[in-house]
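Example 3.2
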Amino acid sequence: MHLRLVAKLLVLAIAMASCASGLLAQHVVHAVTGAVSKVDAGAKTIAVKTADGSEEVFKYTAKTSVHGVTAAGDATKTAAVDTYLAGKEGTHVVVRYVGKGADKTAIGIKDFGKDSLKVSKGTVTHVDRAAHTVGIKTEDGAEATYRLGKDAAVDTERGVVDGTKYTAKEGDHVVVHYSEEAGHKVVHFLKHI
């Protein structure tokens, strides 16, 4: 009798752990960047065309935050998604989201404006955590040092981490989305590939 009870409790504990890990997996925040291609206020969706030419669609809610970036690089809080992005097709955004496949919900959108973000792909050559910089050898063989912006998002296999907590290793293959500010390349979004 005692063994049956222990076995039932063990099965129950495993089932609860599986459910909990499934719930946590649904709440891992990821990010994507690209140009807004469509905002559907009726369906409450935003479509974003990424640098590789694919299009990703995200649901949004009244809780989805939207921030614009001023010419000085400062973030400003804005209106509702459909109001703010209406007529802004082509603007470059970073979308933080939860979910997978066709069930992705945007939790935050940052608008960088049209033609403001540049894209570079390459291999990490060095990281200076104190200076918040990362060196990258690009596909064309050039090496550049990029500063991690104060609001930089780094999308890893385990989700989005703050740029100040980024722990790159030499040899990592990455794509950086950056702007040029005061003579520096400032990363706003970095993705491991």
